[in-house]
Amino acid sequence: MCGIIGYVGPKRATPILLEGLKRLEYRGYDSAGVAVGLPGSLTVVKKTGKIAALRSVTPKELPGNWGIGHTRWATHGGVNDVNAHPHLDSSGKIAVVHNGIIENYRTLRGMLEHDGVVFKSDTDSEVIPNLIARYFEGDLEAAVKAALNHLEGTYGIAVVHADRPGEIVGARNGSPLVIGIGEGEMLLASDVTAMIAHTKQVVYLNDGEVVFIDAEGYRTTDRDDQPVRKQVDEVTWELNHIEKGDYPCYMEKEIFEQPESIARALSGRIERDIATAKLGGLNLDRRHLREVNRVRIIAAGTSWHAGLVGASLLESVARIPAQAELASELRYRNPVVEKDSLWFAVSQSGETADTLYAMREIKRKGGTVLGICNVVGSTIARESDGGVYVHSGPEIAVASTKAFTSQLAAFYLFTLFEARMRDLSQEEGKRFVEALESVPAAVAKVLAGRDEIQRIGKKYSKARDFLFLGRGLMYPIALEGALKLKEISYIHAEGYASGEIKHGPIALVSEEVPSVFIVPNDGLREKNISNMREIKARGGPIIAVGVEGDEEVASIADDFIATPRMDPRFYPFTMVVPLQLLAYFCALDLGRDVDQPRNLAKSVTVE
Ligand code: G6P
Q1: Any alpha helices (H) in 345-463, and if so which ranges?
Q2: Does the C-beta of 251 come closer than 6 Å to ligand 1?
Q3: Are the C-beta atoms of 480 and 508 separated by less than 8 Å?
Q4: In the annotation, is 373 catalytic?
Q5: Is 249 an annotated catalytic residue?
Q6: Domains in the chain, start-ordered, CATH in brackets?
Q7: Which of 51, 171, 309, 572 is buried most, with the most CB atoms less than 10 Å from its CB?
Q8: What is the band of 607 on the pLDDT scale with cuts at 50, 70, 90?
């Protein structure tokens, strides 16, 4: 949430800051700003709206070769130019950009007001530059450290001072910050996407660390001024991975990338001859993995839906009791952490605050937590005991698509691995492997049906409410379909277990409320068909996502989306894709901003 960028070097800072902010825009996009330094003064430009709005009011030839920038997702204080970052101290010499929440800001603000500071914004962040000003005696890094001692809450910050040309100080506690090492230039950002055009050499900061950068290099210390040695990592992906290419938006690109991204998640991880999976990053010995008696999965949003599929699969295929829970709920429940449980924290970004804090609480209680993350070097990936990178490549659209199917792939691999250590025979394992390896081609086949799904999207996009219904492994897919639709089209949608409709949701059914039924040819098909008839009898339109050749389902439905016939355990991959496309085409028809829907952000680093 909120994106931060800093640059110092020989070039003009403004274009680099604006370009970096554009790449960070998915983290928050209600307002943005930059502070660029000339010796003795700072120029600050802030604007409500997206980076394009900031760009339009930023002087083209703004001089200054060091500065900081911010794109905001509002927490404290409304969305307006004044509350946008950077915030200045009352002398106008110190500028700060902040991601996170300062929980004790009221106390600090009261204290500073008592000393005569006049605040301009309603934000929690404005206390930070004013606190730094209080301690500044010529050494910016020392003043930042002194100020940090007063802050409670979470922060990733970048700070500049007009009288310290070419210096930026950053600090992290709960909100990500990465250093970029260029040639004669240095950067600092919330994530590497903002810097990839300039460098691939990066250093990830940990909580409690402070960094000082100038054009020559960087030094990292803890808040007590003790030096901290850091490892330099190399980013392995290219700039074109975060560009739209020929697609009109990132979401469409990412949906259509799924055959390759799923194949990448599986690549090198299947041992065909013994029909099992090879997951090098788990960091746990076989005996430990064999003795797991329960799997518990924590996550948020779409990642939670992947966790629900994973739990169901682990239970039915590997015969390990498994549950997936919302991290935001679990962390406040004082969870029991049993000795023989294995935990998974699932997160595309690896930064979601609730998932991260829940993971820390479980680890504190002695639990073993594996991460299933996409972003390499993210906090959850680094702090977990081991895990699986899903390798979907950067996911930029706020609504998650390709990361979801890759998270599924990680769960299928882990399930295969555990099942083969338990009761799944080599023969059954082979069938599982064959079905798993057939997924990318099957997804490609579903994607080829885009025109028909676009037609259906257009037909129903004016509906105000939708129901998404499924059973078994398709229940989480129904939840995901409903989430996708509401996220990007703003149409109200509810995902329900089909068996539950008569306990309430059926009251909503009318000619105006379409129901999307997800009906594979599994053991629950007949039950689903009965539920479809119940809806039909009450005049509700039905869109069915089913299996090619299923005439009965097609004949009950008003609209039918055919997907390839699969081993029933693998339908989550193929049946979620039409729902992603349906949401996408409804949103497109309504003229929504598909990649950056209102009020949302991709990486939710506040609770
Ligand atoms: C935000 C995003 C969702 C995502 C959720 C969890 O709400 O908009 O797309 O599913 O966070 O994010 P994570 O990075 O932990 O998977």
Answers
A1: 353-364, 379-383, 402-421, 426-437, 439-447, 450-460
A2: no
A3: no
A4: no
A5: no
A6: 3-235 (3.60.20.10), 242-437 (3.40.50.10490), 448-593 (3.40.50.10490)
A7: 572
A8: confident
